[in-house]
Amino acid sequence: MTLLRSNTPAQAMPSANASAGAGRGAASMKMLLITVLGWTVALVIFFPILWMILTGFKTEAAAIADPSFIFSPTLESYEAVQARSGYARFALNSVAVAFGSTFLALLIAIPSAYSMAFLPTRRTKGTLLWMLSTKMLPPVGVLVPIYLIFRDVGLLDTRTGLIIIYTLMNLPIVVWMLYTFFKDMPKDILEAGRMDGASTLQEVFFLLLPLTLPGIASTGLLSVILSWNEAFWSLNLTSSKAAPLTAYIASFSSPEGLFWAKLSAASTMAIAPILILGWMTQKQMVRGLTFGAVK
Amino acid sequence: MATLQLNNITKRFGDTSVLKGIDLDVNDQEFVVFVGPSGCGKSTLMRIIAGLESATDGDIVIDAQRMNEVGPADRGLAMVFQSYALYPHMTVEGNMGFSMRLAGVPKEERRAKVLEAAKVLQLEPLLDRKPKALSGGQRQRVAIGRAIVRNPSIFLFDEPLSNLDAALRVQMRIELARLHDKLNATMIYVTHDQIEAMTMADKIVVLHDGVVEQVGSPMALYHHPANRFVAGFIGSPKMNFFNVDLLSVSPEGVYIRLPGGGECTVPADGHTLEQDATLELGVRPEHLVLDEAGALSGQIEVLERLGGQTSLYVRMGELLVTLMADGDVGYRVHETVRFSFAPERAHLFDSDGRALASLTQHPLAGLTRQDNRTPGAAEAPV
Ligand SMILES: Nc1ncnc2c1ncn2[C@@H]1O[C@H](COP(=O)(O)OP(=O)(O)OP(=O)(O)O)[C@@H](O)[C@H]1O
Ligand SMILES: [Mg+2]
Fold first, then answer.
1. Are B209 and B284 within one domain?
2. Chain B residues with CB inside 8 Å of A193's CB?
3. For the whole prediction, is pTM greater than 0.90?
C-alpha cells in the first residue's frame, strides 16, 4: 500500500507487485515447512508422555497387549492407585519440598549474584565456574557420606532434609542464572538509585528485583521443576513421611511385577501439577530465558 | 551556596593511572564544563565528585567540608546520566519523586514538589507515563527533573545531550542555560562537544590523559591557549600549525621566518627562548586571510562552499592548511593562493608545546557567559 503513495513510475508497479507476490509465496512455503517440522519434532518428544497418559486410561491387560490407540478408556487404574495410597500426601510433600527449596535457593542466590554482578573481584569468574563444576560430580559419589550425616543429625525422611539437599543441588544453577540476569541490568539505573539515596537493600527491593522479575521468575520456575522431578535423593533419603511424588511413582514398580497402567496413572498424576504450572507460566518463562537477548 | 575544591585527585584502576593529580576550584553558581578527548578521564572525575567512585588519592571538598567518605546521596549533589538512567518500571512522577519516597516524604508533599519541577520542564502532561512512552528529549527532561527535585547544591551532567539529535541538542542546550540562570545552582557539565563547551561554560576545564591542561573562560581558552594541545582542541576547524625558524627576540616580540621565506614579529614573550629553539606557529583558520601580497602561499586542494563561508584546504608541502574565507571568493581548486595573518592573532609554541605568553591581552579574554547579558535586564522566563 505504501508503494501506491510513493512516486514510483506507474509502469514499475506491476513488476514490483509480482516479485513481492512471488516472495510471499516462497516465504509461506518455507513457513509451512518449518511448521510441519516443528510439529513433528514436538510430537516425537511428546510421544512418550502421550503414551503414558493414554496407558493410564487402559486396563492392565490392555496396557501390556499390542500397542493401540483404540481402546475403551477406563478410570480403573486411577481408582486402584487412589485406593492404595494417598496421592495427596505425596503431592503435598512435593509442593513443600520444591517450593521450600526454591525459596531458600533464591534467598541465598540473590545476594550472591548481586555481589558477583555488581561488585566483581578478580576471582568472581573462577568462583562461578567452580560452582558450576560441582554439578559435574555424580551424586552417587557423595550418597554414603550424606546419608550418614543425615542419619546422625536426624534429617532422614524429613522435608527439611530434602529441602536442604535440593537447595544445595540447585544453588549453582540459580546463582548462575541470576548472575546473568543481573549483569544485563544497566548499572546506571542502580547508580541513579544510589544518588537518590537508596541503601543497598532499597536498591535491591525497589530497583533490581522489580526490573529483573521475569528472570527471577523463570529461575525460580526452573528450580521448582528440577526439585519436583528429582528422584535420586528423594528415593534414597526418604521412605514414607517425607516422600514426594517421585517416590510415589517408584512404588508402583514393585518386586511383584510392573503394573504399567497403574504406574502410568500415578506418573500422570505426578507430572500433572508441574505441567499445568509450566503451561500457565510459559510466557514468563520464555521472556525470562530470552531476557538478555531481547532487552 | 556551593563551592567545590578538588585537591590533587588521582585515580588508578589496577596499574593504569587514569587521573594524575587534578586540582580544581569551582565557585558558587558557576557553570563549569569538562572537555577533553575520549578516554581522558572526564567521566571518572565526575563519578569521583559524585561519590560513585572513590579517589585513589586526594581530597574532594564541598562547601569547605571534606567529602571523601560521605556517600553519594549525602553530598548534596544530583547527577544526570548520559543514558538518562530512568527507572523503567516507574512513571515520570515516580521517577522524579523516588528520592523523596526513599527519604519518607509524605505523598502530598512529594506530589507538590514533583509538580513544581514538572512545570519548569513542561512535563506536567506526562507525569503518568512510563519512560518507555517518552521521546528522547522528554526522557532527558525527566532525568533533569529528577535532579531538580532533590534541590541539590551542585548539578552534575555527564554528556547529557549526546543521545539527542542535533536540533534537539540545540534546544536542550538553551534550556539548560536558562535553567542554570533560574536555579542559581552550581553546575558541572561533561561534554566533548566544542559548541556546548564554548556556549554554556563560565569556566572550561580541558582534560587530557588525566591531567588538567588549562582552566579558563571560553574566550580566554580561545584567545590565549596555554599550550599546543588546548590550541588544537578548542576552536573548530582546528588551528593550523607551522614549523618556523627563530630569528631574534626583542621586547616587541619574537622575530621568526615563516615557511616560504616571509618574516614577521609575533608579539609574544620570548625571553626564555634559547638561541636555536624550534618553534611552532599556530594560526586559526578564521584568522588566515587571503592576501595578494601575503607571505604564505599554496595550492588549493579542496574547496567547500557553505554559502556564507568558504573553507579552503591549501597544500603547503607536507602541510594541509585550513583557511576560512568569505562566501563569495572566486577561487577554484588547483589555483595557487597567497595569504597572511595579523601577527597579534598568531600563537607561538616552544618545543615542549607550551605557549609563549602573549604581549597583548585580547579584550574579550576575561569575559564570562554572565557578561553577555545587559546588566539589569529582566530575567528571561524559563
Ligand atoms: N572501571 C574501570 N576499570 C578500568 N579502567 C577504567 C574503568 N573506568 C574507566 N576506565 C578507564 O579510564 C579511562 C578514562 O575513562 P572515562 O570514562 O573517565 O573517560 P571519558 O573521558 O569519560 O571518555 P568518554 O568521552 O569516551 O566518555 C579510560 O581509559 C577507561 O578505559
Ligand atoms: Mg565519559
1. no
2. 87, 98
3. no
